[in-house]
Amino acid sequence: MAGEVLRLQGVGVKREGASLLRDVTWTVDEGDRWVVVGPNGAGKTTLLQIAAALLHPTEGKVEILEEELGRTDVFELRPRIGFASVAIAEKVPAGETVLDVVLTGSYAIIGRWREEYESTDLARAIGLLEALGCAELVKRRFSTLSEGERKRVQIARALMPDPELLLLDEPAAGLDLGGREDLVRRLSVLANDQAAPTTVMVTHHVEEVPEGFTHALLLRKGGVVAAGKVDEVFTPEHLTACFGLPLTVDRQNGRWYARATY
Ligand SMILES: Nc1ncnc2c1ncn2[C@@H]1O[C@H](COP(=O)(O)OP(=O)(O)OP(=O)(O)O)[C@@H](O)[C@H]1O
């Protein structure tokens, strides 16, 4: 089945007179791996919050996993979506273990309470931590992890409910070069795994786009500059328009590199 996982039509978000998103029309099909790129303040996180059913638009229509926002129970929809973001990591209670951070992803809740988990849930959580190279962290307190370790644990948590849609908000932000390359490599393995969910990742940098990502959406000042197949979107013209400075872009071994030409 190759259905539509996300469908936005004429979506706008206004706050205090400001347009955070303007007339965004965007479709994500099952199996796509999208990257959303744009400068600071472009509206990337706002767009991802809509895709995560955490925010309702002021204008337009949003369908997520064939459910229309405003006409569906978001508490049933959210566990079908895996979401990794700094905003979630910041809400993790002090003292929460890495294992519980991952396990609670099953219910899209933050902070373990009275919910019960089966041995299969424990095995899945540990398996995901292993796949992300952080099995040894399972008993650690999340608050004591390095930024790179936190990013990988957050992705394991986002994958915990076996989501139909995986959303990653700036997964490589704050990582050193080794940490970034390690994460990009792991995300590339995920992108090339046909069993992995449809994925949307937000980043500021084309250098962080893993090999295997198929589509790109460029945002500037809340509006779409370009959207479509990644090699048709990552052109000097589109990136120049998106970031507002003259840019050139190269591709090597499936990775992208951009730099200013002045
Ligand atoms: N409640 C609000 N009222 C007014 N403006 C807001 C509000 N919330 C966010 N904004 C503004 O909306 C714009 C888009 O924010 P958003 O976080 O979606 O951008 P972003 O592309 O993710 O930015 P960054 O790359 O810096 O994280 C920003 O200019 C932000 O200051």
What does this structure look like?
The protein is of the alpha/beta class and 262 residues long. It has a single domain (4-260), classed as 3-Layer(aba) Sandwich (Rossmann fold). The protein is 29% helix and 29% strand. The chain contains nine helices and twelve strands. It has helices spanning 44-51, 74-77, 86-89, 98-103, 119-131, 147-159, 177-191, 230-233, 236-243; strands at 4-15, 18-29, 33-37, 59-64, 67-68, 81-84, 165-169, 198-203, 215-220, 223-229, 247-252, 255-260. The strands form three sheets. A six-stranded mixed sheet has the order 6-7-8-3-9-10, sandwiched between helices. A four-stranded antiparallel sheet has the order 2-1-4-5, covered by helices on one side. Strands 11-12 form a two-stranded antiparallel sheet. The chain is globular. It starts with a strand and ends with a strand. Keywords: ATP-binding, Nucleotide-binding, Transport. This is ABC transporter ATP-binding protein. Pfam families: ABC_tran.
